[in-house]
Amino acid sequence: MPEQEINVPLVPAHWTFPAHPSSVGRARKALGEVLPEPCSARFAEELTLIASELVTNALRHGARGKVEEVVELIAWPADGHYWLAVSDPGDTRPTLLPANPGALGGRGLFLVDALAAAWTVRPRATRGKSVVAGLRLDQGGRG
């Protein structure tokens, strides 16, 4: 049977990383290799910053530094956005807390909230949760 022209959605990119701090850099690098082309430098920076913050939170609060645990990153374009889902085994929902001006950290979710067009937390069927965030493709990504 000859190949037919049909509208098949793109297959999401998917990675699994160990619960280790080096996974943040590995996630950023992996995502950089699948960004839509052409895309602006700003779009790439914002998307990789969102991924970096979500993976960092998943490692700190979801996997809690347990080396035997893993964190997953899924990326895909759909509905005018480029979506990221970061999944971890934890059951604690991330929430925006009041900013502490003297703290050295704790601003990751504020960055995600400021940059993403939308974000949410979804429970996983087996265990844990996924934090899903989307950046509009018309902000400099292909679209």
Please outline the helices and strands.
Blueprint: E1 13-18, H1 22-32, H2 41-62, E2 70-78, E3 81-88, H3 108-115, E4 118-123, E5 129-136
Antiparallel strand pairs: 1-2, 2-3, 3-5, 4-5
Tell me the name of the CATH homologous superfamily: Histidine kinase-like ATPase, C-terminal domain
Number of strands: 5
> Roughly what fraction of the amino acids lie in strands?
25-35%
What is the alpha-carbon Rg in Å?
A: 16 Å
Give the tally of structural domains. 1
Secondary-structure element string:
EHHEEHEE
Number of continuous helical runs: 3
Any idea of the CATH class? Alpha Beta
Structural class: alpha+beta
The rounded distance between the terminal residues' Cα atoms is: 32 Å
Can you put this structure into words, describing what you see?
Keywords: ATP-binding, Kinase, Nucleotide-binding, Serine/threonine-protein kinase, Transferase. The protein is α+β, with helices and mostly antiparallel strands. The chain has one domain (13-139): Histidine kinase-like ATPase, C-terminal domain (Heat Shock Protein 90, 2-Layer Sandwich), CATH 3.30.565. Helix content is 29%, strand content 26%. It has three helices and five strands, in the order βααββαββ. Strand 2 and strand 3 form a beta hairpin. Helix 1 (22-32) packs antiparallel against helix 2 (41-62). The model has no long low-confidence stretch (mean pLDDT 88).
